[in-house]
Recover the amino acids of this structure.
């Protein structure tokens, strides 16, 4: 069912062709131009970098090409807010995280970057960094980010928080799950929906259980029971549509911002019990921002990176997302207890968790069937 690591593998092979053919990576005029701009900005005192980037961005034509996996209702207001701040027009290419990665990799192979900046899921950001597609950033905006949100050549810009979600008309107060283990309870037979590509959630819950005293046999049994209770669907937004319409009672996992935004529009959905405090450990998966090393508009890319970690964080909060820095008025984590997300383990995964999750879901019917 999942194609995530297949896409990653193909993308890595594309870049391998670049770095091994003809004795090294493709070198173009844009390589030297972008490198010079990044070096010029990085060499200044931090309190002077932003002004220099603005000056250089005007010379570039005040344009930015952004590749992102943000949905349109997030990407558009983010781009508009950045444009309003700096007068830099943003051309947005949207796709799922695998598509964003593959397009950026293919352009790296061709030696002509189409993106200036990228904002997407941690796994794809890691792949871009590992394949030397991203430039380093040393701006003062990093001072606001916790160490766990800083990575080589990219920085966490927001977090997608994993929690179960349920329809409050179908799952009454007191009937909701209070642990990940509860998803295996017989009372939820036929009531749980699993998303077909959520192998990162599967890995994190498995690791959490093992780290907190469960044996592998106990973990395997729990997952079999959860799968026996479930049907599957593709896409977290699609899942939420099913949930809000009452076609499904409960989702094993969805991103809390998707649930919260649906609830704000009047849908009978939640990820919190009546008390307002969840006892289910929540995993915060980082999405990150990076600058393309060979960007056509490197100064604009620098400004976007800097902005997204400063004023842009406030825009993300307005949109109901979980920012990577502390922002006054942010309520996205109210009632939630975050536990560490296994970035390191999943970044090194060879696809084994995809295979395990696919095997778990084999034979599970789709929603509506």
């Amino acid at each position: 069912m999942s194609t995530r690591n297949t896409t990653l593998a193909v993308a890595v092979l594309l870049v391998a062709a670049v770095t091994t053919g003809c004795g090294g990576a493709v070198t173009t005029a844009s390589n030297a131009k972008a490198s010079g701009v990044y070096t010029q900005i990085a060499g200044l005192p931090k309190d002077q970098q932003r002004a220099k980037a603005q000056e250089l961005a005007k010379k570039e034509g005040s344009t930015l090409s952004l590749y992102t996996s943000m949905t349109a209702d997030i990407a558009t207001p983010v781009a508009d807010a950045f444009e309003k701040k700096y007068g830099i027009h943003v051309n947005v290419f949207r796709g799922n995280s695998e598509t964003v990665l593959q397009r950026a990799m293919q352009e790296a192979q061709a030696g002509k970057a189409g993106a200036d900046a990228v904002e997407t899921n941690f796994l794809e950001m890691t792949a871009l960094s590992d394949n030397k597609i991203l430039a380093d950033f040393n701006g003062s905006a990093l001072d606001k980010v916790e160490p766990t949100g800083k990575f080589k050549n990219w920085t966490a810009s927001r977090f997608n928080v994993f929690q179960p979600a349920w329809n409050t008309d179908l799952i009454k107060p007191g009937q909701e799950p209070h642990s990940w283990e509860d998803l295996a309870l017989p009372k939820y037979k036929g009531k749980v929906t699993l998303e077909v590509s959520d192998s990162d959630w599967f890995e994190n819950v498995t690791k959490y259980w093992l780290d907190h005293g469960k044996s592998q046999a106990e973990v395997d049994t729990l997952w079999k029971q959860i799968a026996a209770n479930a049907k599957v669907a593709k896409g977290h937004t699609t899942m939420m549509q099913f949930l809000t319409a009452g076609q499904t009672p409960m989702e094993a996992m969805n991103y809390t911002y998707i649930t919260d935004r649906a609830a704000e529009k009047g849908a009978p959905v939640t990820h919190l019990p009546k008390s307002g405090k969840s006892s289910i450990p929540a995993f915060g998966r980082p999405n990150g921002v990076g600058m393309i090393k060979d960007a056509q508009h490197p100064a604009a890319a620098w400004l976007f990176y800097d902005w997204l970690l400063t004023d842009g964080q406030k825009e993300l909060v307005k949109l109901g997302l979980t920012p990577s820095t502390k922002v006054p008025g942010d309520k996205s984590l109210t009632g939630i207890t975050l536990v560490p997300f296994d970035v390191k383990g999943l970044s090194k995964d060879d696809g084994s968790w995809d295979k395990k999750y696919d095997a778990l879901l084999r034979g599970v019917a789709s929603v509506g069937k």
Remarks:
- The two ends are 17 Å apart (CA to CA).
- Residues 4-20 form the longest helix (17 residues).
- Residues 239 and 290 are 29 Å apart (CA to CA).
